[in-house]
Amino acid sequence: MNTQSDISVLARATLIIGALIIVTFGVTFAALQSQATVVKGNTIQTAVASLQVSSDGTNYAGSLNGYAFDGLIPGGAYVPTNGYPVYLKNVGTTPLSIRLSVSPSLVNNNQVDLSKVRVSLSPLGGGAGQNVSLQDLITANSTGGTALAQEARVTSGQSTGMLIKISMEADSITGPSANISNLDFNFGAVAVN
Question: Residue 24 has what pLDDT?
Answer without folding.
Answer: 58
